[in-house]
Amino acid sequence: MPVKHKENKPIKKVAWSEEDEEHRQKLIKCAERYAEARQKVLSIPGTSVIEDIQYAMSLIYEEYKANTWPDKFKQKYDLSLAESPIKEALVAARILEEYSDLTTVLHQDLNYDWYWAVNETGEILDKAIGYDDHL
């Protein structure tokens, strides 16, 4: 019986590669923009990350579904008419969505280990927000 050999899968990166420094800098700048937008939301009395920014993220997703599948979903709100604090929360949510997309590029396009990419980008975001310890 012949011995089967494992397919040679490319080894996933688990540390920053010099060739990806530009992408790393994009992540850092995006995290810093999110931290500023988040702080702007939190400076409004009675707001919170959980209630306001996550709610804004759900509104963006609803808009996405309505734009992507108009025969199945109808747009409920015109987000361009949003007022404070939702207006500020939408800015933060869109930046966080961009950050998520940049994280996805790490493991889908740049060959980084998925777990490493999520952990590393979590640390970058924590640092930008001002958290001292990650996990």
Topology (SSEs and partners):
Elements: H1 21-42, H2 49-68, H3 86-108, H4 114-129
Q: What features would you describe in this structure?
A:
The chain is mainly alpha-helical and 135 residues long. It has one domain. It has 4 helices and no strands. The chain has helices at residues 21-42, 49-68, 86-108, 114-129. Helix 1 runs antiparallel to helix 3 (86-108). It starts with 20 loop residues before the first helix and ends in a 6-residue tail after the last helix. The model has no long low-confidence stretch (mean pLDDT 92).
What structural category arises from helix and sheet content?
mainly alpha
Order of helices and strands: HHHH
Total tally of structural domains: 1
Give the overall average pLDDT.
Answer: 92
* Terminal residue distance: 48 Å
Write down the overall geometry. flat
* Cα radius of gyration in angstroms: 19 Å
The major pleated sheet works out as:
none
- Count of discrete alpha- or pi-helical segments spanning 4 or more residues: 4
Low-confidence stretches: none
Helix-residue proportion:
55-70%
Sheet-strand content, in percent, reads: under 5%
Number of strand segments: 0
